[in-house]
Recover the amino acids of this structure.
C-alpha cells in the first residue's frame, strides 16, 4: 500500500504470539515510508510477558517518541488492558476498519491493539490505512474523554468551580506570535469566549493605544467577561522593545511600553505579563552579563510602576528554544528577589514547563505561594486534550496547593480559531461538570 496521510512515527511491540503479525505490520508501515520504532521482541523462541511490552510502548508514546503506538498479542485483549493501566493512554482494541475509525475519531486513541489470532497479515493493511488516515474529531467527544481522568482531577467535596477564573488568550491585532485566537477580530473572539463558557480573556497587545479604555470596557460588558491580564511580548517581537535588548534604546522602549500597559491594566484590575517582552541575550558572555544587569534595572523600574498603580506583575518562564533568559520557575523567582521585588508573581505555562521542569507537580508545590497565574496549553501548544501533557496531575496539584486564580488557554488556532476555542472550552467544562447535554449526543 502507499503511504497514507502525513508522515508519522509509530512505536510497535508485541508478545511472542503476536510476533508474526508484528513483523507483517512493520514491513507494511515501512513500505509506506512510516518511521517505525520496533521495541521487540525480535524472536519467538522464548515466551515473553505482554504487560512488559505494553508498558514500554505506552511510556514511549507518552514521552513523545512516537505519534502513536501499536501493540499485538493473541487476542489484543491483554495488550489493551495493560496499556490502558498507564495514565494518559487510550488503547483501542480493533478487529476491523470501522472500530479503528471510531477509536481514532471519537476516542482519540493513541495506541492500536490487534489480535494475531483474529486479524490476518493480509487484512491488517486495511486497518493500518484507517489508523493512519483518521483524525480525532474533538468537539462533543472531548468532555467525555476527560471523564476518563475524573478520579484524578475531581474537585472534591470542599472545592468549588468559583475558585478558578477560566480564560482564553486573544489579540485585537494579527501578530507573528502564534498562540492567540481570533487575532485581529477581538469582537468575534470575545463573543466566542462567552459562548464557550469562559469567565475572562487575556489580551496580547502590541501597544496600549490599540484599544481605548471605553471600547474595551464596552466589549467586556457586552459579553459579561473580565480582563485577567495583558500580555506584552508583541512589543519585543514587532518593535524591538525588549528588556534584554543589546541597545539602551530597546530597553528604555520596553520600560516605557510596559509602563503604559500597567496604566491600562489598572483600569480593569488586570495583571501585566512579562513574558516575551524580556527578549533574549546576544553576543559574547561579557555582553550578556551587561544585558542582564540592564534588564534587572529595567525590571525594578517596572515593578515600582506596578506598585504605584496597584497592578500585579507576572513573570513567565519560557522554554530554552525561545529565549536564554529565564527558562525555569527557579530562575524567575531568583530574578525577582535579586530585583528586590518578590511581590512579582509567577505565571507558569504548561507548554514551557513540559520542556523545562523535571518534576512539574513538585515545582507547583515548591512555589505555591508565588504562583499568580496559570497558562494551559498541551504538549504541542494546541488546545488542552490534543497532546499528551498530564493535565490530570497538574490539576490535582493545583487543588492540593489550593490555587485560587486564573487558568487561561494560550493556544495555537489549530485547526482554526473557532474549533480551538471550542476544544479549550470543552476541556475546561470536563474538569467541572459531569453532565452531557442531550443535544451533544
Amino acid at each position: 500500500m502507499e503511504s497514507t496521510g502525513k508522515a508519522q512515527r509509530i512505536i510497535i511491540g508485541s508478545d511472542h504470539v503476536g510476533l508474526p503479525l508484528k513483523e507483517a505490520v512493520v514491513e507494511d508501515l515501512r513500505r509506506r515510508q512510516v518511521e517505525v520504532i520496533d521495541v521487540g521482541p525480535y524472536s519467538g523462541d522464548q515466551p515473553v510477558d505482554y504487560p512488559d511490552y505494553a508498558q514500554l510502548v505506552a511510556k514511549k508514546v507518552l514521552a513523545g517518541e512516537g505519534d502513536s503506538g501499536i501493540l499485538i498479542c493473541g487476542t489484543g485483549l491483554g495488550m489493551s488492558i495493560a496499556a490502558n493501566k498507564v495514565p494518559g493512554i487510550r488503547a483501542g482494541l480493533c478487529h476491523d476498519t470501522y472500530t479503528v475509525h471510531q477509536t481514532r475519531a471519537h476516542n482519540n486513541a493513541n495506541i492500536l491493539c490487534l489480535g494475531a489470532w483474529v486479524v490476518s497479515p493480509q487484512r491488517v493493511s486495511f486497518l493500518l490505512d484507517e489508523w493512519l488516515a483518521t483524525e480525532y474529531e474533538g468537539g462533543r467527544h472531548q468532555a467525555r474523554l476527560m471523564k476518563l481522568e475524573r478520579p484524578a482531577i475531581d474537585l472534591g467535596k470542599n472545592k468549588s468551580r468559583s475558585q478558578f477564573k477560566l480564560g482564553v488568550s486573544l489579540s485585537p491585532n494579527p501578530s507573528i506570535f502564534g498562540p492567540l485566537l481570533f487575532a485581529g477580530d477581538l469582537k468575534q473572539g470575545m463573543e466566542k469566549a462567552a459562548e464557550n463558557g469562559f469567565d475572562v480573556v487575556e489580551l496580547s497587545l502590541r501597544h496600549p493605544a490599540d484599544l481605548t479604555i471605553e471600547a474595551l470596557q464596552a466589549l467586556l460588558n457586552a459579553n459579561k467577561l473580565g480582563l485577567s491580564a495583558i500580555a506584552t511580548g508583541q512589543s519585543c517581537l514587532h518593535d524591538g522593545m525588549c528588556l534584554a535588548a543589546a541597545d539602551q534604546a530597546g530597553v528604555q522602549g520596553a520600560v516605557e511600553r510596559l509602563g503604559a500597559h500597567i496604566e491600562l491594566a489598572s483600569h480593569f484590575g488586570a495583571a501585566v505579563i512579562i513574558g516575551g517582552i524580556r527578549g533574549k541575550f546576544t553576543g559574547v558572555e561579557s555582553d550578556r552579563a551587561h544585558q542582564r544587569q540592564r534588564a534587572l534595572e529595567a525590571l525594578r523600574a517596572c515593578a515600582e510602576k506596578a506598585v504605584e498603580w496597584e497592578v500585579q506583575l507576572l513573570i513567565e518562564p519560557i522554554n530554552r528554544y525561545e529565549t536564554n533568559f529565564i527558562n525555569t520557575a527557579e530562575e524567575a523567582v531568583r530574578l525577582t528577589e535579586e530585583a528586590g521585588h518578590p511581590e512579582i508573581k509567577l505565571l507558569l505555562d504548561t507548554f514551557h514547563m513540559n520542556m523545562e521542569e523535571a518534576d512539574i507537580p513538585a515545582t507547583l508545590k515548591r512555589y505555591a505561594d508565588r504562583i499568580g497565574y496559570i497558562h494551559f496549553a498541551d504538549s504541542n501548544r494546541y488546545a488542552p486534550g490534543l497532546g499528551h501533557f498530564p493535565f490530570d496531575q497538574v490539576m490535582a496539584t493545583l487543588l492540593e496547593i489550593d490555587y485560587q486564580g486564573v487558568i487561561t488557554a494560550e493556544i495555537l488556532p489549530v485547526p482554526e480559531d473557532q474549533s480551538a476555542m471550542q476544544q479549550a472550552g470543552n476541556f475546561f467544562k470536563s474538569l467541572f461538570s459531569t453532565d452531557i447535554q442531550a443535544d451533544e449526543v
In short: The chain has a mean pLDDT of 91.
